[in-house]
Amino acid sequence: MLSIIQSLQAGICSHAPAGRFRRKNPSFGIASALRRRTGLGLDAPGVSSPGLLQCGTPRRLGDLEAPLAGGIAAKASSRPLDAPSQAPGVLRVHYIRKDHNYKGWGLHVWGDTPSCTQWQQPLKPTSVTAGGLVWDLPLRSGAQRVGALVHKGEQKAASGEVQIHATNGAGDIGVSGGGGGGAAAAEDGRVVQEIWLVGSEHRAFPSPPDLSQIPAGSVNKQAGHWVSPNLLLWRQAPGDVAGPRTFRLGFHSKGYMWINGAGVQGPEASWELAVAPPQAAFDAIKRFPHLYGTTPLVVPPEAAARVSELVTGQLLVSVYDANGEALDGTGVQIQGVLDETLTYDGPLGDHPDPATGGHAITLWAPTATDVKLLHYRAARGGNAEVFQMTRGSGGTWTLPRPDDWLWSYYTYRVTNFCPWTARFETVEVTDPYSRGLAADGVRTQIVDLSDPATQPPGWLDHAPPHLEQWTDISVYELHVRDFSMMDDTVPERLRGKYLAFCPERIASGSSPSASFAAAAAGVPPTSDTNPGQHLSAGLAHLAALRSAGLNHLHLLPTYDFATVPEREEEQLRVKDDLSAYPPDSPTQQAAVLAVADSDGFNWGYDPVHWGVPEGSYATDPDGIARIREFREMVQSLHSQGWRVVQDVVYNHTFASGPASRYSVLDKIVPGYYHRRHEDGTIADSTCCNNTASEHIMCERLVVEDITHWARNYKVDGFRFDIMGHLMLSTMNKIRASLDALTPEKDHGVIGRSIYLYGEAWDFGEVAGNQRGRNAAQMNLAGTRLGAFNDRLRDGALGGGPFAPPQFQGLVTGLLLAPNPAAERDQGGPGDQRAELLVLTDWVRAALAGNLRVYPLHLCDGTTRTGEEVLAHGQPLAYGGLPCEHVAFIGCHDNKTMFDQIIEKSSVNESSEERMRMAVLCLALISLSQGVPFIHAGDDLLRSKSLDRDSYNSGDWFNRIDWTAATHNFGVGLPVSSKNGGSWPYMRDLLAQAERIRPSREQILAATRIFQALLRVRYSSPLFRLAAPADVVRQVAFHNTGPDQIPGVIVMELVSAPYDNDGDGSSIKGVYDPSYERLIVVFNCAPYDNDLPYPRGVPQGGRLELHPDLAAVGDARLSAAAADDAARLLRLPPRTAAVFVQRRQ
């Protein structure tokens, strides 16, 4: 996800509508504009259609609409020349609909009025009259321009902008663009300027318009829903005061229908639709809950029998009152009827053809009127051979292909009716089931993934490292390019490539600096798993982490994405020496932004072809090198002891519509694969072009694609971006498909060991199960799907992505070391203490695995289970199993963990103390029940110079120094496109870079302690409990309730007794063969704290600091001690310590 909205300008008035939050649930709150290049702010009405959008295009108010026809034109004033000019004080906006359907509409406002709105909070009407809705908008002094858009949620209706001009108070108001406007007087004597908005028109009228001249509907909307052959749903009342209404369905095979004031015109065929009782829609509403309350309309048998024909043309549904007057007309969404009548379960893409013994290429395109295959002999250039494909069953088109086409390329030429342009389009498009590609995904390559040419030696026979249970997992999140691009111990040709993860590929380019890096990381320059192989600095660091127990390497998107030119010669580079500029200079970011959209860096959350490795990470983006090198990377990481996680993005595509070369799915079946609002526009709450896994063929594509990566690339886990936008049924089918993979038939792959986790935020059009039960936090208990726990993050750091960045939490000094910059907002000591104790309870719940059933003794003195406590307005704990808990504090989204600590901690803190805070965060993650998740470099106190969303900030801001010789704080102000509004306070911090930036010794101390914490985790099974009952029995907290010592958590883990019978029948719980108990103390206070022994520790219990922590050699950590005589645990400031009672 997305994941995951920090432009806090929403609702701030300007001459353009303010940016609106679009990215993720406030409980997680990753930047709304995402890591994609989309602006997502609402500006003046534009001319784009969503079908033409791609994430790289800034969103405009008119994205879903037709062009604005110039506003309101000037009209000659009739006032006397000597009349005094008066500025209007109020803009009165009238809204009229022919169908009188006014329920739920609000007004989004921008410009020179104090009534500017956030998108999610439209203005309610000032009054409701027989003539429609009215809003009175006060105007600012000197107002010049105001814009207004009528909308209901994401459904946009009429809009317009008006220029404000002075009037004589009794005549006309001169306004720009289409006619004069009348002036009236408000009750308080202010001059009122009036405009009228009508239906879905994108112009403002200066006087009440003649409705007979206004189209009764729009061909560019699709508010009708054909959900099954005999049923169509539309949110139109079946009747009004004039009597019952009449509904009609119109069809044209060439797309020549239009709508005018008299309704739909020019159908080839049309049918009356009878109104059915509400219960007729019962089954359809179960499939499409968001259509609850719509009117069911019966499609007559003669039309239902022609479904396969009608879905290939233009469809319009219209409504008329009892007098025959046209009230509305709209297009028809056909996803539901396609799912009922034209799905296909046979092979798609290039596949063996049992009928001929050869091969065929099959495309699912049920709405197409023609499909041709264009065959190319090479990755680029050459003339296409054109072959007519044959329509088959289930909406498919097929072409047998010769065997000698293997390794050649093809595209499709598809003709179909496009709802976004309201006409037929013929487009060239690649195959959504592509398994190979030319550079930049311009052509699909025919490949054979079983051919040795696509495999490194030993590929089929090698197996991933063994995994006993999912709670044994720990994850390190890493970007392929970040790993090696700035590492001079990697041969230049391999930097930023898959092969940089392969020691044998690095060997010929090893250097003295690589040996230095390995020694710094505490690892010899040869790997135990690769004897004799020299390690790069990055590989040396990974080897050290793996030796400590970290075992899953999570790679940010590695499928084919849109936002990087795949051929290196086409990638732009920053040529200046950016290190020459001051730490708070804007010069660095200006140089990065100048090439950002054409350089080699992007996070890659911009999917085009889900089933093919990204070409920019391969040494050759054309052909099979990307396949072979991705496999070689996976095989090498397996040999180094790592299991590999792939970050996947099935919640959206980068582009839609007929124009963009990055649009694939929507060119083939327009409007089907993407989730659409009720009016037909594509939902974009994830950032852009949301996909709809509730549709059968979209779900099939997702399930088969995941299975393909697991079987053919031996990927060991999948992290789902914005997983909450996928249906839970889709995730369950993925789980079942993976579970069916076995070593015997799938070359060593154990499907049941593959871990699935993701961003389970619940927001946008799917929130509250509006589109069916989605894979959101509150729906996941017992599913075995992992979800990121934002409560741990917000409890430890404080605030959240929507709060001021200086807000503090348990670790960052709330109450105990207040940040003067947040003092006004955080309140006094009493308020801060109350907040600190609540946040501490949040962290305790996370340490216990985020289990709904875990009982917590809370700061208010009560004892309640995790699901009975609220956080972010929802249950604090929502998991059913420990493996469903992904414990994280930092990730690629938002600022790095250390950058947030810099912002939140008092400016007076030293770099040493900030390092200690970071280590406390790492300890909370590492010692939590569930699955620890660490962002790459957080153990090295990684900084991106305060960049909150570095998806497109280049190598300069994203670099990692694995040797700890340099640190990236203070390498310039972060990019203005995402951070410009925060530059004033950021500049003050960055100017102090020399004082704030940690030393190399502090960085190395942080990673050494982190590695020791990992060893602690894997030294005892009690940190990795798999059953919720065991967590409840064997994990306890002390120093709780209203009288607790603030800033201190004491967690006790107790072993179950030894099973003398050997069959487990008499023992409940997990036995630790080394320790009878472990006591974990997190002292987040900036001073020493002495804590009493837990009552269960027997006299002479002989507690001692865990040997792995004692071996670190860190003076502060070594000062943590258990005083048996006084029965006290003595904790230094800002220290996490684990005390053990050894078995005798």
From TrEMBL:
Keywords: Glycosidase, Hydrolase, Signal. GO terms for biological process: carbohydrate metabolic process. PANTHER family: GLYCOGEN DEBRANCHING ENZYME. The keyword Hydrolase applies. Residues 223-340 form the Pullulanase N2 domain. This is Cytochrome c oxidase subunit 1. Pfam families: CBM_48 (PF02922), PUD (PF03714), Pullul_strch_C (PF11852), Pullulanase_N2 (PF17967). Belongs to the glycosyl hydrolase 13 family. InterPro entries: Carb-bd-like_fold, CBM41_pullulanase, GH, Glyco_hydro_13_N, Glyco_hydro_b, Ig-like_fold, Ig_E-set, Pullul_strch_C. The lineage of its organism: Eukaryota, Viridiplantae, Chlorophyta, core chlorophytes, Chlorophyceae. Gene3D superfamilies: 2.60.40.1110, Glycosidases, Golgi alpha-mannosidase II, Immunoglobulins, Rab geranylgeranyltransferase alpha-subunit, insert domain. SUPFAM superfamilies: (Trans)glycosidases (SSF51445), E set domains (SSF81296), Glycosyl hydrolase domain (SSF51011), Starch-binding domain-like (SSF49452). It comes from Pleodorina starrii. Residues 91-169 form the Pullulanase carbohydrate-binding module domain. GO terms for molecular function: carbohydrate binding; hydrolase activity, hydrolyzing O-glycosyl compounds.
